[in-house]
């Protein structure tokens, strides 16, 4: 089911955003981020997240377009139970280039990066949550979906899911989100990349 971006609820609403018939455009605020404790010792919950409620299992996917150029520029999907249990996944700029990134947080954050493809100014990300597990896939074309991460994630009766964007080192990143949908959790095999 396609989602109307106007139906979401902002956590840390950006000063500049708008919707049109095809998507959502967000411009990030200064030094926005989501992180809890690990390595850096700080907690940040200031990133922009447009939340949509879900049940206890689902698959969500979204198309992300932007020019990611500054350290830690990031955009993608977030799944959230509360401020201590959440996941963000999508693009993140680090070490001079964009990577596909996932941060899984259950009290404390972890961080993993991968680069199954380097063309990350226009890509799609898909998250499936079911039975205490989180499956994350990404795609350049919406047809071929390599696995990025399979991780445990707390089972809950409901989650929130939606687009998220942050710029911990600056402001002014413009990101376009489109083709956002939330459906029943896919049940395809882990190695089925369709």
Automatic annotation (TrEMBL):
InterPro entries: ConA-like_dom_sf, DUF1349, UCP022704. Pfam families: DUF1349. It comes from the Bacteria. This is DUF1349 domain-containing protein.
């Amino acid at each position: 089911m396609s989602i109307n971006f106007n139906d979401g609820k902002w956590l840390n609403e950006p000063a500049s955003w708008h919707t049109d018939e095809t998507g959502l455009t967000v411009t990030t605020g200064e030094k926005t981020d989501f992180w809890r404790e690990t390595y850096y010792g700080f907690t940040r919950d200031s990133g922009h997240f447009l939340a949509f409620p879900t049940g206890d299992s689902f698959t969500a996917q979204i198309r992300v377009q932007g020019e990611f150029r500054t350290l830690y520029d990031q955009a993608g999907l977030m799944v959230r139970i509360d401020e201590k249990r959440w996941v963000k996944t999508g693009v993140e700029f680090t070490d001079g280039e964009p990577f596909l990134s996932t941060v899984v947080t259950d009290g404390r954050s972890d961080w993993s990066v991968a680069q199954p493809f380097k063309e990350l100014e226009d890509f799609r990300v898909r998250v499936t949550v079911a039975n205490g597990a989180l499956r994350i896939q990404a795609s350049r074309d919406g047809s071929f979906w390599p696995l990025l991460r399979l991780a445990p994630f707390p089972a809950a009766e409901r989650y929130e899911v939606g687009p998220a964007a942050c710029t911990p080192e600056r402001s002014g990143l413009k990101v376009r989100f489109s083709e956002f949908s939330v459906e029943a959790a896919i049940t395809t095999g882990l190695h089925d990349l369709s």
